[in-house]
Structures are given as structure tokens and as C-alpha cells.
Amino acid sequence: RRSSSDSYTSVRLSETQPKKRPMWQTVLIIIAIVILVLAFLTFLAIWVAVPIAFMQSIAFQRFIMFINVDSPKNPEYNNPEKYDIRGVINFYITTQDLDNFTLVNIGNWMILHEEEIDNFRERANTNQSASQILANTKKPIVIYMHGVACNRVKPVATYNVIRKHFLIIAPDHRGFGDSGPNVELSEAGVVSDTVQLFKWVRSKTNNDIYIWGHSLGAALSTHAVKVLKEEEDIVPMGLVLESAFTTMREEMIHHKLGKIFKWLAYFNQTILDPPERNGFLFRTTTNILSVDCPIMIMHAEDDDVIPYFLGKRLSEVASTKRNLTTQGKVFYHQFPSVGYKHISLTDDPKVPGYINEFVQECMEANKARG
């Protein structure tokens, strides 16, 4: 028989012993700890490791600047009909690398003016070269510089608009498509190739030559026009900039990827400054001051890659900091948010009229220059 003292002792022990936590509470605590640890590791990976890796790796910076991936994949350059375009010649030119020793093979598409497509088809079996076509065409020429994440096959829709006005030479930049896999991809290198391509075209024809750049290609085009003037004393008839930015630094700040890191105290030191130290400048607002031909800038308000206000700001710089009388007028066309976004503004029905207006101004400006 238990005594009253034993009962009292057991009661006291039960009161002093901690109560066991329910299993569901334990599970919740473990889950919360795991989530916190994963969140911390994710923070370290995204907002610490990535900026540091970007700061330290030139290869990482180069890829982010150019995004030189094939789109479409496995392109068939000698089979343009696969991409619903005809009157196209695939050809190559050789340029000299910046060291003046290494040769660079640059792949190009020549897209004939739509009025000359049938002539080309009639003579398709004569192996007519790109050089011969340039010598015989009566149409003005435009060198079209594409942007990132594509090759010379992708802008077919744009080609079909532009070819109503020009014969198009569309190169792949070194490191893109099948161009220059043996040389370093850099702003200076692409600009050098473009200058040499322009001179090659100029050596084959006396027709007017324009340059048209889209996105990153707009920055490269503007830089090339500057070099043509300052080093070769050559001025193209006109420069068209589609979906352009001011500087790479500003584009990185406003790009959706840049916004992920923009709030970091070390954003400048790890993201913005390193590319500039390694020559990835793309300072279009500076280079455009040396452009001595008329300029047309076009941008869509719903561009989700390069904000339209950067294109507008570029047009303002070109309009206010150049001598419009001696260097050429600036045309700026802003398209409403109707779905054109970054790559489709040439679908707008007003674009052909804008091109005609621009070409007319370029001819008048060229006549005034004598």
C-alpha cells in the first residue's frame, strides 16, 4: 500500500519534469530551420557567389555581354529556304584580327533586294559570287548587325522588311554562328571586323552603303561608324539604330537581371566596374558624337530587354550634342506598347515610310556634303 508521502513525491516530480513537446511542433521547428539554412545558402549563392564570380571571370563577363549562343540551333546557312526566305547567298570574307597576324573567317548572308530576287533565281546555276552581285546591283546596300543570342538566320522577319529598300549584308559577329571561333570575342574585335567588312563592300560597289544595328548590334554599329570616320576617313550614307541603349553600364542597371543585384552595396565594384576594366564599354552616347551622317533611332515602349527611355536618351544626345547641319539630322520613332517588344518593331506598318523618309534625307545630306 502506497503512503501519502509517496503520492506527494510523485506529484511533485510530475510538476517539476518538463512536458514533452508534441511531435508536430518538433517537425515544424526542423522545417523552419531547414528553410532558414536554405534561404541563407541561396542568398550566398545568388547575391555573394555570383557577383564575386562575375567580378573575377572575364569569360563570365564576356558571355553576359554578348550571349553568343546559336538561335536557331544547328543553323543551315546554305539552306535559307528552310527559314522561308529566298534570294539569299551564304558567303564568307576574311578579316585580320587586332594582332594583324591572325585571320578571321566571317560568315555572312547576302539578302537580295526584293526586286532582284527573280534575277538571282534565273542565274542561280552560274555560281554567281557575292562580289559579282555587289558589282551589278543597282540598289543601295545596308550592313545589318544583329544583337545577342542569335545568329544571322534569326532576323528573317526584319530582313523581309528591309529588303524592300536595300540589298542586305548580314554578318555574324566573331564568336557567333560560324564566324571567328578561333579568336577572342571583344568589342574592339567585332568593330574591327565590321570596319573591314564595310571596306570590302565599298571596294565592290559604288552604291550607297548604310549600317543598321539592332540591340547590341546598334552599339557595335555606332562604334564602327566612329572608327570608319576617325581611322579611315569614311562616312556611310546613314546609320539606323533599332532598340539601342546608351551605354552598357546603364543597360546593366536597368536590365531585369541587373535589378536583381542593384540593391547590393557592392553592385558597382562587382557588377558594373569589372566589364569596363576589361574593355566591354559599349559607350554609344560617346561614339555617336562622331557620327557624321543622318541617324534614325527606333524603339518600342514595351521593349522588355532595353528600356525605351535609353533609346530616347540616346536620340537626345545625338540631337543636342552633334552639329545637325554638318553631321546630319536625327530621326526618333517611338512605338506604342502593342506587342513589338525587343525584336519586332519592324512589323509596324509605318516602318517602310520611315525608311523612305530617312533614305531621302541621307541622299540630300550626302549631296550637301558634296
TrEMBL record:
Domain Serine aminopeptidase S33: 139-264
The keyword Oxidoreductase appears for this protein: no
Domain of life: Eukaryota
GO molecular function: monoacylglycerol lipase activity; phosphatidylcholine lysophospholipase activity
One of the record's GO cellular component terms: endoplasmic reticulum membrane
Transmembrane stretches, start-end: 27-54
Keywords: Membrane, Transmembrane, Transmembrane helix
PANTHER family: ALPHA/BETA HYDROLASE DOMAIN-CONTAINING PROTEIN, FI04476P
Protein known as: Serine aminopeptidase S33 domain-containing protein
